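Hey, resending since the last one bounced:
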Amino acid sequence: MEREALTELAIRVAGSFPAVTRGQPFGEGTEVFKVVGKVFALVNLGDRPACLTLKCAPPHARSLVAGYESIIPGYHVNKQHWISIVAGEPEHPAAGPDPAPDIDETLVEDLIGNSYDIVVSLLPRDRRPVDPHAAPSTGTDTGASASTDASASTGASESESESARADEGLKSR
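The structure tokens again:
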């Protein structure tokens, strides 16, 4: 993957998640992505080589570092919990005619999503913008229609029904 492609992809994907903010707290040249104030991705900009740094579970990080030349232990962060994807760095063994030849768009998207999910899962439940452990909706869930049917028969409005479900969820925590 080329340097510019990695940078553009990282910025687009990292910025697409719920409750994400971005800024440059370390000065110009490093874009930092946070969810509810917690960092999950760092992307360097400008003329420097592309480096995308992401949160990663230690066993997964070790496996990625061993399996991909373009993935190294986190640059300037805890090397056990972070990885960096590098592209366009002449001194790096992965750089060659095609910087980061072993990295593709799907892998980068998955690693960014994984980093986001890890950080969200570590947030207090009441501050999580999404539940990282919830199964993705398949559109075949009949539970919502059943509760809507029940509220229709009792005369309750849909918003009252949703409010009751939300209250039940809070009580179970």
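Confidence is low (pLDDT under 50) at residues 93-98, 137-173.

Sorry for the duplicate.
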